[in-house]
Structures are given as C-alpha cells and as structure tokens.
Design a protein that fits this description.
By secondary structure, this protein is an alpha+beta fold. Helix content is about 30%, strand content about 25%. Strands 1-2-3-4-5 form a five-stranded antiparallel β-sheet. The longest helix is centred in the first third of the chain and has 45 residues, at about 10-50. The radius of gyration is 23 Å and the shape is elongated.
C-alpha cells in the first residue's frame, strides 16, 4: 500500500472528520445524561426543602417564585399544609466564601423565624470552612429557632450573635451573609402569610 502524501487538504479533511465524530459523541452523551442529571438535581432540591421546612402537603417547587438580587437570583418556595402557610424556603447565596460562591437553602417559619438551614453548594477548605455543612459540625444549629429581627446575623467578631467556625471566619461570614440576604428579601405576604 502506498503512503499518502500529507497535504493541507488531507490534514484538513482528517481533522474535520475527527472534530465531527467527537462533537457527535459529545452531543449523544449530553442527550443521554441530561434527563438523569435534571432528575438528580430536582431530588436534591426536594430533599433540601423537606429538611428545612416543617411538614407540608403542597408542591413548593410548583409555587416557586424568584427575585434577582446582587447579580444573582434568590428562589422562594412557599410550603403549605392545607390552606395554611407553614413556611417559606429560600435558596440563597453569598459570593464571599473563602473558596468562592456558597449556596444555602434557608427555611423560614411564617413569623420570619429560621427553621433550619441546608448547605447546597460550597468550595470551602476541607476540615475548616467546610464545617458549615451539617454533616461535619453543628455550626448551623445556632441559627435554628432564631428570628433575624432580634438575632444579629453576623459573627461575634463583627458585633453579631453568631459564633464563627474556628479558623474559618471568612466562611462563617459568608454563611451569615447568605442567610441575611434571604431574610432581607423574604416577603411572607407573597407566600400567603397574614
């Protein structure tokens, strides 16, 4: 078999064929995984809602509304039992984490009291800032049952009521910032509370 001469046209055709095959495979993998990824994300969101809100019988995701705040978006999930509002969960954020953006789900009762908080996403330092995660420490417990009207959402070093995670003041401040952002934008009348 004779060896083909490498010409610009031959190389261009070979490279185009490789790019076409690679993009077709990538598109196929995307289509195959798109649905399972969306289901997994929805299940994580529903699990977070169940963990931060009192028992409810509606579908908070269907009643979700959002608000653009500080260059990002807050998502509000009203939870009801029968016709009564039992709480609103807020998917909130703070760009001030040591490792960048953190995202939390904060559950509020109809009077504005914090019910529970779930950490959705963070890139904080393992063994330090990642202690904001309930699986790694009890840091978030100091927020439960507190009403931000009287509980200052800042670390004690900044004159607030929150005991910072040891050696992770920046992460603790970011956590407080995310909870404060959720509270400041919480509209309990929109969720149906009186």
């Amino acid at each position: 078999m004779a060896k083909k001469e490498s010409t610009f046209l031959n190389m261009l055709l070979a490279l185009s064929l490789v790019a076409l095959v690679a993009s077709a495979v990538l598109g196929f993998v995307y289509e195959v995984t798109k649905e399972p990824i969306a289901r997994a994300k929805a299940e994580r969101q529903n699990a977070a809602l169940r963990s931060v809100l009192p028992p409810f019988d509606n579908d908070p995701v269907k009643e979700m509304y959002k608000k653009a705040v500080d260059g990002d978006t807050l998502y509000f999930f009203p939870a009801r039992r029968g016709d009564s509002l039992v709480g609103i969960a807020v998917e909130t954020f703070s760009p001030k984490g040591f490792g960048g953006m953190i995202r939390l789900m904060v559950g509020f009762l109809p009077d504005g009291t914090i019910n529970k908080i779930a950490v959705l996403e963070h890139n904080e330092t393992p063994g330090l800032g990642d202690k904001m995660d309930p699986a790694k420490s009890d840091f978030e417990l100091q927020f439960e049952g507190k009403n931000p009207k009287t509980f200052k959402l800042a670390v004690t070093k900044d004159g607030g009521d929150v005991d910072a995670i040891t050696a992770s003041t920046i992460s603790s401040r970011a956590f407080c910032d995310a909870v404060e952002r959720a509270y400041k934008n919480l509209d309990l009348t929109k969720g149906g509370a009186q």
